[in-house]
Fold each of these.
Amino acid sequence: MDAINLTETTRTNLLAIQNAAHVREQSARQLSTGLKVERATDNAVSYFQARGLTNRVSDLFNVKNDIGQALSAVESSLGGVKALGDISQQLRGIALSARGGSSDQRAAAAGQYDALRNQLANLANDTSYQGTNLVGSTPDNLTTNLNESGSASTTIQGSASDASGLGVQSASGAFGSFATDAGIDAAVAQIESAISQLRSTSSGFGSDIGLLNIRETFTSNLNATLQEGAAKLVNADLNEAAAVQLSGQIKQQLGTNTLLLAAQGEQLVGQLLFS
């Protein structure tokens, strides 16, 4: 097949049309996907930087979830400690009510005291979240990673808060069923010590919750920053892409019109030369 000879003007116009079509294709893809960097071939540096940021976001989401679960576990334990404190206050009241009573009244109060004392163990051992119990008879310790590399973590120490862990003995066994005021006073002293221990445990859990809340908020904010950074690297400016699309369309139309005019001009020249 013989080669088609094109004038310089025609070649220039064809090249301009091809360039305009390519620009329109790129802008159309950006408008449909919302991305200016969709593949590594679009911009390798931006593509892999964005991937690194999004991978870290994924890792930090896992960290945030772990922190959230740890928060729930400690908050559950804190609620348990409050309830244990309420029981302890009731035990104190029962013991004090036995003062000055008859032997039958004292014995009845001792029975109530021991029945309620047993509930300390039941409640403490029921204060569990996802298999973690920070206040049971054999308390767990809870370690939580605070960053994606595991280089920062916090360990929340459990505290046995059943009757034995609080040092609360039975009225019938240790205090002679409240037969004497001295026995009652000894029981009350144990309860007050238990209440003090529970307040200390509650304060410690409160500090742990404060730290976990701070780290959870920090991780959420960091994730948002990383996502925004990744978006800046790969997301398209849709207004700009729309403007480029319109500009490319106009250039393509102008190039086509110019090409037609050039062809018509060359045809007229030929007709004049060979007429």
Note: The chain has a mean pLDDT of 84.
Amino acid sequence: MRMKDILSVSGHRPFPQPAAPWAMTQRWNDLLFAHWPVPAASVGHLLPEGLQPDTCNGSAWIGVVPFWMDRIRLRGVPPIPGTRSFPELNLRTYVRDQHSGTEGVYFFSLDGGNLLAAAIARTFYHLPYYWAEMRHEQQSEREFAVYSRRRFSGSEVIFKARYRGLGPTSKLAEPARGSLEYFLTERYCLFAKNRAGELVQAQVQHSPWALEDAQADIERNDLPAAIGLEMPACEQPVLHYARRQAVYLWPIRLSRPIRRRQPIPAQALPSI
């Protein structure tokens, strides 16, 4: 699908697409989705006020997603030098807004191989980006090796893995509503906490995911421990691969705009 056509296809979204102008486009490439089921109570205390864990099959889910990004464009801004292509890695979970019930994704951390891009994401989207030494290397058509080491971290935060997609199947060509695959990937809102501690959100638009089954050898994963999250020792992750996805993002906004008090006109005050 052509980039400009993505905005015209929105029937797969769980809620309407924003009417306001989008703010940014980017493309995500060669993604591994590695997911582990965890008790909802183990992640609930790590979320900002106003969010609750979203669950499927009786569990909350923790995801680690390495990929590489390109075709980054800010609306109305010429291409930014040095941000054309770089690897990224995120640690995430799935949530609902306690007030509106809106489903979305919450990022515990995002490691990026580009300092400028990390700074832009922290500034404009309040996302917990870290600058990292990263490599995302293609070994064959659908096989990749990933290495990430967070820079300027008080303790070592390393992720190292090899993974490969196993090829398209009719089952995963477009995940069905109600399936685990749909729950883990079809997310069209991201949540974050701004500097004032307020819950904010940004909507996202893309085509339905075309997933593949995947194999992965995750040699080291320090991301959960870096936020104090203990992962199940023997649980094998649920693995999927996706070739690419073009994405539109809208500006960040308050999840629940604050209704500020208005001054009372002097003529409305009772006379004494």
Note: The two ends are 70 Å apart (CA to CA).
